[in-house]
Amino acid sequence: MKTALKIAWRYLFAKKQFNAIHIITAISSVAVGVVTAAMICVLSVMNGFGVMIEHLFSQFDPDLRITSQSGKSFVISEEKKSKLLELPSINLISESISETALAYFEEKSDKKAAFTYYPSVNEYQGRKTLQIIVQNYR
Fold first, then answer.
1. Which residues lie across from 112 on neighbouring strands?
2. Vertex 71: Cα angle to 70 and 75 (nearest 5)
3. Per-residue pLDDT tens digits for 42-86
4. b/e map of 42-55 (b: 16 or more CB within 10 Å)?
5. What is the band of 138 on the pLDDT scale with cuts at 50, 70, 90?
């Protein structure tokens, strides 16, 4: 390793005239610095967007979601619901159904997108944050 560093030091920082190796080294060093700074800025902005979107969607996403291990649905008894609601950390239990669907944007067009469809359920009306968000976007 010492030999490689000595050779690099000899050719890059020679006391002789200013030659092409110095120019190429300076240009590549500046390019690496600019690209690194640009990547740091872009990644910082993307991290900020990720935090912002996570905050926006955290108002819709439940803190705890219980799903069926097999199949699309399961039955929960009223007795189990009442036991869950007795816990101090649970404010609301809402049953929901979701289905993946495909939307076509125009007739005779190739524009289509897959999305997850959640039919509206009356229990969601009890959530104050959801009412505020819906009113702000109308």
1. 104
2. 95
3. 999 998 888 888 777 776 677 777 788 887 778 888 898 889 889
4. eeeeeeeeeeeeee
5. very low
Residue 66: inside a domain: no
Domain count, the chain: 2
- Number of Cα atoms under 13 Å in the Cβ half of residue 5: 2
Instruction: Name the nearest CA neighbour of 97 among 137, 67, 130, 63.
Output: 67
For residue 72, tell me if it sits in a domain: no
Q: Six-digit token pair at 8?
A: 């690099």
Domain membership of residue 68 (yes or no) is no
Same domain, residue pair 7 and 46: yes
Is there a contact between 85 and 97 (Cβ–Cβ < 8 Å)? no
For the segment 110-121, what is each residue's pLDDT rounded down to a tens digit? Answer: 788 888 776 655
Domain of residue 118 covers: 78-136
The pair of three-digit structure tokens given for residue 36, joined into one six-digit string = 């690194």
Residues 9 and 52 placed together within one structural domain of the fold: yes
Q: For the chain, where are the E strands, in sequence order?
A: 99-104, 112-117
Q: Per the domain annotation, does 67 fall within a domain?
A: no
pTM: 0.42
